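<instruction>
Derive structure tokens from the sequence
<data>
Labelled lines for chain and fold
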Amino acid sequence: MDATENLRIAKSDRDTWLMGDCYNDVTGRWNFDTLLLDSCLGDERGEFAWGGSEFTEDAYNIRFNAHEGASDQPILRAELRDSAGRFHEKDKNLSERIKNTTERAQQSERGPNGHYDYLTAILLLHRIKG
């Protein structure tokens, strides 16, 4: 993800948070931010689904690698349950829909033009000022 450092996840029984330091190119400072992944990522019949919610409730072995592969991508992995009740290893590249714009991590939505437009009003982001 652009202009982020110390990217990681924090988990509880019901929630998974993405957190890290986001660079603000206006102020030149780093700000600690969090994004509740369960507010924008769900589990639909054993597949990660953007626009869903609460994937953590049915997922097992949730892991995150902030810098995976030669292309240095942030990959979330978990075992998700399919419609037959079996668990399968799945992954999701978080940079598909989450990026740092100016000073905070944001989740994007596909606009009417078919492109991803980044949210200006951050309803999904719980900001912690450190």
Observations:
- The two ends are 21 Å apart (CA to CA).
- Confidence is low (pLDDT under 50) at residues 110-130.
- The chain has no helices and twelve strands.
